[in-house]
Model the fold of this input.
Amino acid sequence: MSILKKKFGKLKPGYLPKFKDFFEQITQFGGGVEGEKYIKAKSFSNAYELYIYAFFIGLYKDKKVDITEDDKLNGFWEMENWRPITLTDSLITCAIAESNFNMSALEEGDDKFISEQVKLVKKVIESYANGGLELIKNEIDQDPELLEDDMYFIRLLSD
Done:
């Protein structure tokens, strides 16, 4: 099972290029000190935090975006670096549950089979995360003042 955890850790799920400016608008993109996000009026300290958030919004609202092999996705950091680890593990667990992941065949599968199973999960992660990003961005595009509301992202979770 540790080989599976390593493969998930090395994943770099992506987002569609149309969300690049949105990421830069509301995240401390590319790292930085936690306190800088407040100075620069950023809602998230790291891009992966928005990505995790968007995944759960997409999952909760059942909003997926079909990602094809031809889509050129933007990525950021490997999942092994995302924090908190428990939240990242929850994201992976939810994505496994939503995919056609064949857990029982893993013990007998070779490295190629395991890689294919991990790709299935990555596709689910990207699909829901991009769906969530689309929902969030559309709301903010319709009402840009939502970004001024400190409680907007919390309320979005409870809708």
